[in-house]
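Researcher: Structure for this, please.
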Amino acid sequence: MKTQIKHFAIVSLSLVIFTSCTSFNKKKELVQVKDSEIFLMTYNLENLFDTKDDEGKNDEEFLPRSIKNTTYCQTLCFSRTSKRFRQECLDKDWSETIYKRKISRLVDVISRVNDGNGPDVLIAEEVENIHALKDLAAAMPQFNYKTVELIEGPDERGIDVGVISRLPMKSSMLHVVDFEKIKYSLKTQEQLTKERTAHLTKKDENSLPEFTLAREDVSDIKENYPTRGILQVELELPDGESLYVLGAHLPSQRSSTGYRRVVLEKLSQIKKELPEKALVFAAGDFNISAGEDAQKRLYGEQAARDWVISHKIGCKSCAGTYYYHRKREWSFFDVFLFEKELTNGQNEWQVDPNSIAVFNKSLYQFNRWGSPGRFGNGKHSTGVSDHWPLVAKLVRTPNAEQKEDSKENSKTSEEVTQ
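Model: Predicted structure, token format:
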């Protein structure tokens, strides 16, 4: 792992040289969507807060000192149980200058993907409100973004998931996650065993899938606290077909595994409620560590039941998108979950596995150890987010049915020629 970190440090130094000599964001013409390719990006922006106080949200850490130096805000900062977060709340001066610096560095990263054209669809996590998301989109006018969507959820800290896209939006909604409701809707292991036995006895082909979440799997859920909702955005592809984007930000590692299991289950439920054969993918910060997945198989079993996981089909040489220094552990916190028809050739839109990659080509993305550099208080010369974004491409190819028609036409043509 030390060798790996040194390697990233060398890459970081190379990027400083590269970026100082490279012009990447001087396009005068507006970028247009390609008919046969959609570039995707999911990125945890690490606290994109504006400088205004949102009533009812715990955003006091991200306020200018002129507002923060009130008895009310000071009291809120002192009420934080974590010494680190309490001190950050008291010390941080989230001024307009710092806010603009944050936006500028995010733009530096986002502007470099897709050969300098920016993503066609950006799923952004840790955004305070629609105003902050619009400020980010407005700072990239050359990318011609038509959709900027964020629906406020119940998260007490005030962070939400947003979507920015060049594709026009057809509809949107927010799915609120109720942990206890989903927990008690699940069947027990005993009930599932009886159902499996009955299916086997009847030789029923519609038996239960190999992995089915049981109530015992989420027994660690003890309270129903408000969390980030799942943002569903329906976009219109160049061929007129709908593409459903499910933006998610699962509970952090401070919460037990059951909470992340419930959100994964909710994502699968939402997918099943969409129109038959709908093109859909989920993306975001799943907060599933490598160690947790190795032990509990959240990606390997639960998510894989209904989805194709991005780093399982691509990004083979990637270490991860998040580095936990205390454990010396890389993890894929940031992930795409693709509907299986987007990967099995059954639809004309397919994921290009070779396009799935961790993006880290901005000097702002690195800290001194060569891992993702936090923006923090914005006082350092580098640092933008404690996550590296993940990118992927959907490409439009003839589907299986069209290929068969093409073969038939070719065969008929040959017969006529002969």
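Researcher: Any notable elements?
Model: The CA atoms of residues 273 and 298 lie 22 Å apart. DSSP finds 14 helices and 14 strands in the chain.
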